[in-house]
Specification:
Layout lengths: L1 E5 L3 H12 L3 E6 L11 E4 L5 H10 L2 E4 L6 H5 L11 H7 L2 H10 L7 E4 L2 H11 L3 E5 L9 E4 L5 H8 L4 E5 L5 E9 L5 E3 L3 E6 L2 E7 L5 H16 L4 E10 L2 E8 L9 H4 L4 H9 L12 E8 L4 H4 L6 E5 L9 E9 L2 H12 L2
Parallel strand pairs: 1-2, 1-4, 2-3
Antiparallel strand pairs: 5-8, 6-7, 6-8, 9-10, 9-11, 9-13, 11-12, 12-15, 13-14, 15-17, 16-17
The structure holds adenosine monophosphate (AMP).
Length: 358
């Protein structure tokens, strides 16, 4: 089986590694000089919307997928359709625009923070009046890792936030005083079979995911989140892995956003689950039965951002696994992660704190 993948970042690299384990090969399209996925498959160096490159994928792969959220939907829709393309571009279209995404959540009965689309200073004033302060102003498109957003805490912040983010179409969201953040990753295969992993509890700093740890697989919170992700998967006639990010506030869950792809908060599934998110994505899109998603011991993950410390390279502990994406160091850039698989929740907590301080 040959998998065509649009995007060749670290998610592509880890897909490629899972593909090798499953006896599949990957062919990536990525414009960068030395994309991480080059270590795990062949790369066509071209823009994500380069029609010729996409047509090469179509003619030489058995199925096409993507690992990058900002793939131009138009380019995918221009393909002839002779090779299956999963997840469906309609899912990508919704995930690329926070307004469409929120409307979909609402349509499916998935609770979201109160919000207003904002296209002018007057509309922003109206949103402030309606939602109260603080609120979060976000660009509708192309935001990631906390970029393209501003928190408005007091009336004096309104003008600066508008100046920073306009003229892009914006959305204002009520501030959610959440207890913590979680994500749930689900997979659906071509036959409609669905699995979910346990919730991941996620801690962010400066808008970037730092630490993630698997929660228990049972309990009302997991049941509710599974129900929500199941609604999305069914409604979109989705094939592949989908990640739903949620705020936990008391007993309730509010959807923040979804990603139509494998996700950073699921990297602990590589060593910490019976089947990783990458393996199940490949199984899903190639029509295979999905693998079991039970956790192995107590898994968690710490992102390595900006640099990979020498101490991370020198780790000699069979509970810890370093993943180096082979990227050039740059401030704020995700360069790798360390997965830990501990014997107890307490041991995991200790290890995650240690790894986060390396
Ligand atoms: P996002 O790009 O939407 O995932 O936002 C990045 C991070 O900002 C989230 O993981 C939250 O920590 C925080 N955040 C986003 N939206 C809200 C909100 N409406 N209320 C409180 N915090 C938020």
């Amino acid at each position: 089986m040959r998998i065509g993948v649009v995007g060749g970042g670290q998610l592509g690299q880890m897909l490629g590694e899972a593909a090798e384990d499953l006896g599949m090969t990957c062919l990536f399209v990525d414009p960068s000089e030395s994309p991480p996925a080059a270590s795990a498959g062949e790369v066509i160096r071209a823009a994500y919307d380069d029609l010729q490159a996409l047509e090469t994928l179509e003619s030489s792969a058995d199925v096409i997928t993507y690992e990058f959220e900002n793939v131009p939907v138009d380019a995918l829709n221009r393909l002839a359709g002779s090779t299956p393309l999963y997840p469906p571009p309609a899912a990508l279209e919704k995930a690329q625009d926070r307004k469409l995404e929120k409307a979909l959540f609402v349509e499916l009965g998935i609770p979201v923070p109160d919000h207003r689309a904002v296209g002018s200073p007057e509309a922003l004033d109206a949103a402030v009046a309606a939602l109260g302060l603080p609120l979060v102003l976000k660009t509708r498109r192309f935001g990631y890792d906390g970029k393209g957003q501003a928190v408005i805490r007091e009336p004096a912040d309104v003008e600066a936030a508008w100046r920073t983010l306009s003229p892009a179409p914006l959305i204002a969201e009520a501030w959610v005083p959440f207890d913590y953040e979680v994500s749930i990753i689900g997979a659906r295969n071509t036959k409609g079979e669905i699995v979910t992993w346990p919730l991941s509890r996620n801690a962010h700093r400066e808008g970037i995911l730092r630490v993630a740890a698997a929660d228990a697989a049972d309990g009302p919170m997991h049941e509710l989140a599974s129900d929500y992700v199941g609604r999305l998967l069914e409604h979109l006639d989705y094939v592949g892995v989908l990640t739903l990010e949620l705020f936990v506030a008391g007993e309730s869950l509010l959807a923040n956003e979804f990603a139509p792809r494998v996700h950073n908060s699921g990297h602990w599934t590589i060593e910490g689950s019976e089947t990783s998110q990458f393996a199940n994505h490949l199984r899903a899109i190639t029509g295979q039965p999905l693998g079991p998603t039970a956790t192995i011991a107590w898994p968690g993950m710490v992102n390595l951002i900006g640099s990979i410390p020498d101490a991370a390279r020198e780790l000699d502990d069979d509970r810890l696994y370093l993943h180096d994406y082979g990227k050039t160091p740059r401030e704020g850039r995700k360069l790798g992660h360390i997965t830990c698989v501990a014997e107890s929740a307490e041991e995991r907590q200790r290890l995650l704190v240690q790894m986060d301080r390396l």
